């Protein structure tokens, strides 16, 4: 049996933290919360404030009892701006490191697999940003900087890098929809006539519960500087397969989804945007540019690394069929929650 730990968990009310929390039941968990409540022992604080936003007595008490920190707290909003993103994701991580040092604790830091895709952003690639409010570079810069802080902290640490989080594997359930959900919604509604992606580009995703199971396993392993990739890897679907999944589920639900064209991003910049996008109203241009910014991170057929199969006690690597079924479950959940269906609920769909 693994030794019982006292864990300070940040981001416990987030998409991933809320799935991890119930898996840590054999340990004592103290959640650092900002404004929400979670079903656990909790302390109200703020990653953006010195000393984690708690008073001296609380800070010292936490340092006395905590032996492990799991740092899930972050902003994933690509439109938050460089300063706000760095304040929470990078300087917030520095404050967590300072606490872990005071507590002589181990640190599990949750980063993102897309630190491996920095070269694909439109800004780095030298492509026009247009009127996009979504700037992935700010998020990726903050995560890379935070990883370096962790590596050089002198603490026993582990870094986990999940890819895009979708709903739970079986039900598709997720407390808050993510960026990929917005693209799937637009596809189902027929408001995206084209996707700026090569058909073979890989859309790496990981179900929320699978990522949480991997993190729970990491808590019970040595913190020896390992960096784990929580991804679909070779099993990740291509852009054309994601579109085909949307089509299949739309047909099942009676949703008349048009077929979007998958267009090379260079062609979009050279031909499509000047003729079809520039004349649109500002709000429509902004939505299109935000989509360009987000899909750029998927614009390669090369798979992300995946170390799920190396993780003792973890969920194991996903097969392509398991990923396909998880994508279907997430689409079904999205259709139900957003009331997109125009016919009956199909047999086996998440209610």
Unreliable stretches (pLDDT < 50, length at least 5) are: 343-348
CATH topology: Rossmann fold
**How many strand elements?**
11
How many domain regions? 1
Put simply, the count of helices is 11
Arithmetic mean of pLDDT = 93
| SSE-based structural type | alpha/beta
What is the CATH C level class, in words?
Answer: Alpha Beta
Assess the beta-strand content as a share of residues.
Answer: 5-15%
- What percent of the residues sit in helical stretches (DSSP H or I)? 25-40%
CATH architecture: 3-Layer(aba) Sandwich
* Major sheet description: 7 strands, parallel
Radius of gyration: 21 Å
Any overview of this molecule?
The chain has 351 residues and is an alpha/beta fold. The protein has a single domain, classed as Rossmann fold (3-Layer(aba) Sandwich). 40% of the residues lie in helices and 13% in strands.
